[in-house]
Amino acid sequence: MHASLSTHAYTCMDKQPLNSPNPLAEAAMARHLEAIRRVRVDHNYAYDSNALLTDKLGFMAANCAMVLDVGQSTRDKFSLFERRHIETMNINRYQPPADIIDDICAPGRLQYERYDGIVCLSVLEHVYDPFAATREIYQLLQPGGYLLLHLPFLFRYHAPADLGFTDCYRFSRDGMAWLLKDFSEVTLYSIRGPYSAIFNLHRCWKKSIEKRFGMAPGRWLDRIGKRFFKRPTSELQVSGYYAWARKKSSAKVQIAR
Q1: Strand order in the sheet with 141-152
Q2: Paired sense of beta strands 100-101 and 115-121, if any
Q3: From first to last of its 257 residues, what are the pLDDT tens digits of the chain?
Q4: Domain boundaries in the chain?
Q5: What angle do CA 192, 195, 199 make, to 5 degrees?
Q6: Is 252 helix (H, G, I), strand (E, B) or coil?
């Protein structure tokens, strides 16, 4: 059996042994590494997400003519926008109902290149295909348009028991880099640090401690922990990331698959 396998250990395409160097696989890995290297990670807002949201959404409100709010995720920041400059979408009808009911992974009602700003916060971990959704978001943006995205990394499962929505994916820095590889500028903003992220896996931390004392206890935990147990990747062990990304200014861009 083993002899038979080794005798026929050739690919159909190039007749090379299956364990020989694979230029296509090496090129794919090189593209991923390049995507990771060009992403900038900013830890300055790790304990003040509200300031980051106010800054980025305020920028969109002041500079974007039409913004798409995916999943109605601007929430209490929605009031920053003039109503005529923002459209909301959702896959389900909630109260208040979204302007557009559609599937961000395979939209049939949204118009490509209509928006110069898109907000998508804590949504793509719940969809069935976040990579397809990100490709669609890219197409919906005008050249030079902005995306504000949030995705969790070290975060608890949080779908309801009745699966009114699902909870499917988590993204590290490396995963976020690949997800946003088609954008020309990408900055990731970390949330919490390596030890506060662990405590936040328990729902009571955010609902009780942070609600009462803010994120100061988490900052204290991380300072102590990193002082005594710091590892080279400590700053990448976080609850999640906000991403601020910009679509390439060229009007015609090939989407990388």
Answers
A1: 40-42, 185-191, 240-246, 141-152, 115-121, 67-70, 86-90, 100-101
A2: unpaired
A3: 555 555 455 555 667 899 999 999 999 999 999 999 999 999 999 999 999 999 999 999 999 999 999 999 999 999 999 999 999 999 988 888 999 999 999 999 999 999 999 999 999 999 999 999 999 999 999 999 999 999 999 999 999 999 999 999 999 999 999 999 999 999 999 999 999 999 999 989 988 999 999 999 999 999 999 888 877 778 999 999 999 999 998 755 455 54
A4: 24-193+233-246
A5: 85
A6: coil
Q: Are strands 240-246 and 115-121 parallel, antiparallel or unpaired?
A: unpaired
Distance CA 137, CA 105 (A): 9
* Residues contacting residue 115 through CB under 8 Å, at least 6 positions apart: 64, 66, 67, 68, 87, 140, 141, 142, 145
pTM score, two decimals? 0.89
CATH of 24-193+233-246, one of 3.30.450.20, 3.40.50.150, 1.10.150.120, 3.40.50.300: 3.40.50.150
Q: What whole-number distance in Å separates Cα of residue 244 and Cα of residue 186?
A: 6
Neighbours of 36 (CB within 10 A): 16
